[in-house]
Amino acid sequence: MSRLYESGENYLETILTLKSRGKDVRSIDVVHEMGLSKPSVSRAMRILREGGFIEVDSGGYITLTPDGKEVAERIYERHKVLTDWLIGIGVDEKTAATDACKLEHDISIESFQKLKEHIHDKHKNGLK
């Protein structure tokens, strides 16, 4: 598995999100969802395919490989937890989602795990 950058993680997360909506995903769906150009998405899909993160069948349908799914689920979890946490401390929903997208790629595994534990403990103890 090759090194994946933030943009690659975003593409994988988008594919996962589209799949979770029950959609068979093609590059054009990623173009529409992310608001990017067809050439940019085509290049990214080639890089993700060559890196072993996705497979593309003869009809152009995209499937996450086990490695791609692992990355996508990790990024999605981070995005969801960070967005909910930011909203919970009073950040408006749009800003929280935007900031979570920035944070999800840079936060260390250790810090994210501790943040999740902290949030869980506060909820378990009835605190906000």
> What is the count of β-strands?
3
Overall SS class: mainly alpha
- Radius of gyration from the alpha-carbon trace, in angstroms: 16 Å
Could you state the order of secondary-structure elements as H and E?
A: HEHHEEHHH
- The helix content is 55-70%
Unreliably modeled segments: none
Shape: elongated
Q: Averaging pLDDT over every residue, what do you get?
A: 91
Strand order of the largest sheet: 1-3-2
Summarize the structure.
This protein is mainly α.
Structure description:
This protein is mainly α and 128 residues long. It has 6 helices and 3 strands, in the order αβααββααα. It has helices at residues 6-20, 27-34, 38-50, 66-88, 93-106, 109-124; strands at 25-26, 54-56, 61-64. A hairpin with a 4-residue loop joins strand 2 (54-56) and strand 3 (61-64). Helix 4 crosses helix 5 (93-106). The protein is elongated, with a radius of gyration of 16 Å. 22% of the residues are buried.
Keywords:
128 residues; 3-stranded antiparallel beta sheet; mainly alpha
What are the SSEs and their pairings?
Layout: H1 6-20, E1 25-26, H2 27-34, H3 38-50, E2 54-56, E3 61-64, H4 66-88, H5 93-106, H6 109-124
Helix pairs in contact: 1-2, 1-4, 2-3, 4-5
